[in-house]
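Notes, p. 3: input format for complexes.
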Amino acid sequence: MKYVIIGNSAAAIGCIEGIRQQDKNGEITVIAGEPHHTYSRPAISYLLCGKTTEERMKYRPDDFYQKMNCTVMLGRNVTRIEPEEKWLFLEDGTAVEYDKLLIATGSRPFVPGIEGLEGVKEQYTFMSLDDAMALDEALGSGGRVLIMGAGLIGLKCAEGIARKAGSIDVVDLADRILPSILDAEAARPVQEHIEKQGIQFHLGDGVQKFKGNTAVLSSGKEIGFDILVVAVGVRPNVELAREAGIEVRKGIVTDERCGTSLPDIYAAGDCTESYDITTGEHKPLALLPNAYMQGECAGFNMAGSSKTYDRAIPMNAIGFFDLHMITAGSYDGECFIRKNGGDYKMLVSKDGVLKGFILIGDVARAGIYTSLIREQTPLETVDYELIKEKPQLMAFSRTERAKKLGGAAV
Ligand SMILES: Cc1cc2nc3c(=O)[nH]c(=O)nc-3n(C[C@H](O)[C@H](O)[C@H](O)COP(=O)(O)OP(=O)(O)OC[C@H]3O[C@@H](n4cnc5c(N)ncnc54)[C@H](O)[C@@H]3O)c2cc1C
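Output follows (410 residues plus flavin-adenine dinucleotide):
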């Protein structure tokens, strides 16, 4: 069996590990545009601030590919898939044959067309190890940095360069930071915490145009900068799949076995749409654990076993300047809010199940809330009043507790 994987990040690694749990001998070839050993993408900001090194941010040890018996083709881009012939082609014309193919091409930064942007010489995105190294070099020992985007990637970039940059301004169209994962009330204390590090926000405002190294905002405000970082969102890399005739909406469409609309071609990770059980929507979820689990599911199925992945929920466990937060699910429903000093908790329930939560500061035992969402546990079967205040296993029925503890008597 010839397995070929396009991509070398979380989804690809999940797939390799999934295949090898089922098939110790099949040939696995990994092809990726990035030239590096597999690394943890979220760690690029920690590399910039010196909290990690290139060595420590490796997603798997140096001997991983050897132990998994994989052929690795790094720094090589796939340009075409021919599903009828079961071939794919690299940019230098090399043809690679497959029996089972995984597309795990991830996503790329979205760069909006803004007047004058082409004239900004020092402009960067923040998605890859190469991006981080280029930004680090440009920063040298300082410089005024303007970051477009107060989402997760923009703020992780701000954290990474906070000690090096002369100043950091962050602009976002939304009226709050981290708009896709925090509500206004939760965003405020996080913003204040980040501002204490000297980072300045311009929210509810957008860059209308650039005049050289000055950004002119919709409000008329002008911000001078030396270095621009564009972090306004990502787009799934779907072109290869679309051109091969695979069904694509915003992301590659997959079934619960991670199969695409064409036989023997699977897809996983940020390039796909996932079924979000909290909203019932199919959408791209740019999340590392989701990418890994989809990849692993694809790997099992590619190797002839049967596995499904249908429990995706948007979930983020992140921290900024030592303030930790975990968010999950969606926030449309009845809210329970608790504030205690710097800690913030919001639980959202609807139709008798937990739909989402935000925890800031005290994030202990978030797993209980996540499991309630993932399993869609009816809240009437647990002591929700107790769980609201203090998430703990005792709030579950004896049978549920035993299930959660893997059958142990409780
Ligand atoms: C700064 C930052 C912080 C983040 N923080 C978090 C976090 O806190 N929590 C979280 O859950 N997620 C976080 N993420 C998101 C997370 O990194 C992604 O969800 C995850 O990396 C997706 O993995 P993937 O395998 O689907 O794709 P990717 O990691 O995007 O990798 C795709 C791979 O495909 C290769 N490729 C693409 N096209 C081709 C082609 N044509 N030919 C060959 N190779 C190709 C690329 O070179 C790349 O190696 C963060 C991301 C960034 C950038």
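The chain is about 25% helix and 30% strand.
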